[in-house]
Design brief:
The protein is of the alpha+beta class. The longest helix has 15 residues, at 28-42. The protein has one helix spanning 28-42, and strands at residues 3-4, 7-8, 14-15, 18-19. The strands form two sheets. A two-stranded antiparallel ribbon has the order 1-4.
Length: 96
């Protein structure tokens, strides 16, 4: 990307100095470069962990999650296969 000095066009229009981007690059390259610059500025730090030290908070979720039965709502059974015949999947050696 060359630097273009200030100049005056043949019709008298004065053009300020500017960077000339490659033909066809448009603003996409600029946006991509700004995103990379912003990402490099963080150096792996997020604003949430800035200045925080100490132990990690305790986990409050216990798996598997279960829900107590509620009156008026049906209890759902564990899903079971509805297929009553064996399904054969072709293997690498078979021609079917």
């Amino acid at each position: 990307m060359p630097w273009v000095q200030e100049y005056v066009k043949a019709d008298g229009t004065q053009v300020r100095a500017h960077w000339r981007s490659a033909a066809g690059s448009g603003t996409g390259v600029l946006v991509f470069g700004l995103i990379l610059l912003a990402a490099a500025g963080y150096h792996g730090h997020t604003p949430a962990d800035a200045g925080q030290t100490g132990p990690t908070p305790a986990r409050r979720v216990h798996y598997p999650i279960t829900f107590a039965p509620v009156a008026g709502h049906p209890q759902h059974a564990v899903p079971r296969s509805t297929v009553s015949y064996p399904i054969r999947f072709p293997s690498k050696g078979s021609e079917r």
